[in-house]
Specification:
It is built from eleven helices and 33 strands. With about 550 residues, the chain is α+β, with helices and mostly antiparallel strands. The longest helix has 23 residues.
Length: about 550
């Protein structure tokens, strides 16, 4: 009897142990994890292509948001300890730039991957454009609707092969008569994808208007409805024959609709202006306002910085890392209208000129300004103009990054070959020699664009003003020298000097004289350094009287 009870007790205990073991072997639920690489693939070419993604998920996953112009294979998968290969195939694009957001998700985690494809409008159009018409060869798919046309002229809008744009005027050169007119330049249908963000912009030039805001206007029609005016800001109207950008109107409210854009020209019998339009673009995404950095040069305490009256130019600055330290490279003031820097300022000594790299020739847009605002220095200018450095490449051979930054579009200006390779090169060599024998030399270099009527085209066919003159202001510091601070100004008319011209004395002057010529206030921090009286003496120095300049 006792044995029977013992057996029954052991059986009960075994049952409990087995039950507990079953509890302990129940699968532990995994915490969902998900990773997609690359998370931001490169833009797909117009012709289409394939993107390879690696999906790692420890539980089952799926992908959603696949548009009709794309396939994803596979579109789902099981949990795994290894990367799973997913092929994204994008079809040929025959329209504007497009994008899709693929959402990969599992139980608890989701990751978005944005796929973008380039437009089919050619290399001259920006990458992210939904609609583009340059008027490079004709009026394209635009149409003209004349409301009132002067009989003696017969037209208002016409294609200009000379300026590569559409041009409207009701002024007759032969008779110098103005005529009343109204004529519309109207785009083809433009469909904006549902849910898209976009903005409109274009370039225009012209003048001789009565009231430009009434005579040169922009309109939009949605789904064939009434025309709605898009108001051009007064500061965005052209005042000359230099093309300027206008617009950046938010077009997101038209997403999912088909629109037309129209340029309406009108005039009176007493005033008939001329309006030129090109590069009409509807860009994908939201327009980012450009912030122009305006600072008080005295707050930086950088000795090279000048002061200026025109805040629209802004104070921009580049720096680079070398040997675990940050060095300032150069600062510059940018004229968006002329697409040149009116001045650049930089320190110079053996730290910068010590040669550890070769000239890089890495011509590039300035990343601070971006492709649209920077000049494009990738190819040579036409005729006799060189891509003239303002901060010399040879002044920045201390490391690769420092040298590459001298090839940004903001450091380049069209310069006559003989000027660039002659007197300007001699001046650069002279200043570098002085700097290498000093503690630090501070340089402001720049160009004069006021009064210039000459233009050249950069690699993007944007017009760049040809400077009428170039200049350098130089401040040398050498501790223990008889003259601790010495200064010199140089001003060269933009012309061809005699070959191998080395007569720098003829183009030298005091800083005071150079300030009169340029309208800049050089070396504004010198007063705080040595006092107002001594600073005034330095700026009044005749460089030819000081042996350090070797004039």
């Amino acid at each position: 009897m006792k044995m029977r009870k013992l057996i029954m007790a052991l059986a009960a205990m075994l049952l409990v142990v087995v039950s507990c073991d079953k509890e302990n072997t129940k699968p532990v639920e995994k915490t969902p994890e998900l990773n997609i690489t690359p998370s931001a693939p490169d833009m797909v070419a117009t012709a289409g292509g394939e993107i390879t993604l690696k999906v790692w998920s420890n539980v089952d996953w799926t992908v959603t948001g696949v548009p009709e112009w794309m396939t994803v294979d596979p579109a789902s998968g099981s949990g795994s300890n290894y990367d799973q290969i997913v092929k994204v195939t994008v079809q040929k694009n025959e329209g504007g730039a497009r994008e899709a957001v693929l959402t990969f998700s599992n139980k608890g985690v989701s990751k978005d991957v944005k796929i973008q494809q380039k437009h089919s409008f050619g290399n001259d159009a920006p990458d992210g454009v939904l609609f583009f018409e340059a008027f490079e060869k004709s009026l394209g798919n635009f149409t003209i609707k004349d409301v009132t046309v002067p009989e003696s002229i017969g037209f208002v809008w016409e294609y200009s092969s000379q300026y590569k744009c559409m041009k409207a005027t009701a002024y007759e050169n032969a008779t110098t008569n103005n005529y009343a007119s109204e004529s519309w330049l109207i785009s083809p249908d433009i469909t904006l994808p549902a849910g898209s963000k976009a903005y409109l912009t274009f370039e225009h030039a012209g003048g001789y208007f009565g009231t430009a805001s009434k005579e040169a206007t922009v309109w939009v029609s949605k789904n064939g409805g009434d025309w709605e005016q898009l108001v051009i800001d007064s500061k965005d109207y052209p005042t000359s024959w230099t093309f300027v950008k206008a617009g950046n109107w938010d077009m997101s409210k038209y997403a999912g609709s088909t629109i037309k854009i129209a340029f309406k020209y009108s005039s009176t019998a007493t005033k008939a202006g001329t309006w030129e339009v090109r590069n009409v673009s509807i860009m994908l995404g939201e327009h980012q306002e450009v912030v122009v950095p305006n600072v008080d040069p005295k707050t930086t305490q950088w000795m090279e910085l000048p002061a200026m009256d025109n805040e629209a130019y802004g104070y921009y600055s580049h720096s680079f890392a070398m040997n675990d330290e940050i060095y300032r490279n150069y600062s510059f003031a940018w004229s968006q209208k002329d697409l040149v820097s009116v001045w650049l300022a930089y320190p110079l000594n053996k730290t910068y000129t010590n040669k550890t790299v070769e000239r890089t020739d890495q011509w590039a847009y300035d990343p601070i300004l971006g492709k649209d605002r920077s000049s494009a220095p990738f190819s040579y200018y036409a005729g006799d103009y060189a891509r003239g450095h303002q901060v010399p490449s040879a002044d920045r051979l201390c490391c690769r990054t420092a040298n590459e930054q001298t090839f940004y579009g903001t450091n380049i200006a069209p310069q006559l070959n003989e000027h660039n390779e002659g007197i300007w090169s001699n001046l650069e060599n002279k200043i570098r020699s002085v700097a290498n024998a000093s503690d630090t030399t501070y340089v402001v270099t720049g160009c004069i664009v006021e009064g210039s009527e000459k233009k050249e085209l950069d690699s993007d066919k944007k017009e760049i003003t040809i400077p009428v003159a170039f200049f350098k202001a130089v401040l040398r510091y050498k501790a223990g020298d008889t003259n601790v601070w010495t200064a010199a100004g140089f001003y060269t008319d933009h012309k061809n000097y005699s070959p191998n011209n080395s007569d720098l004395k003829a183009v030298s002057m005091t800083i005071d004289e150079l300030e009169e010529k340029t309208g800049l206030d050089f070396f504004v921090n010198l007063t705080d350094k040595i006092g107002a009286d001594k600073a005034a003496d330095v700026e009044a120095q005749d460089p030819s009287a000081f042996s350090v300049w070797g004039l």
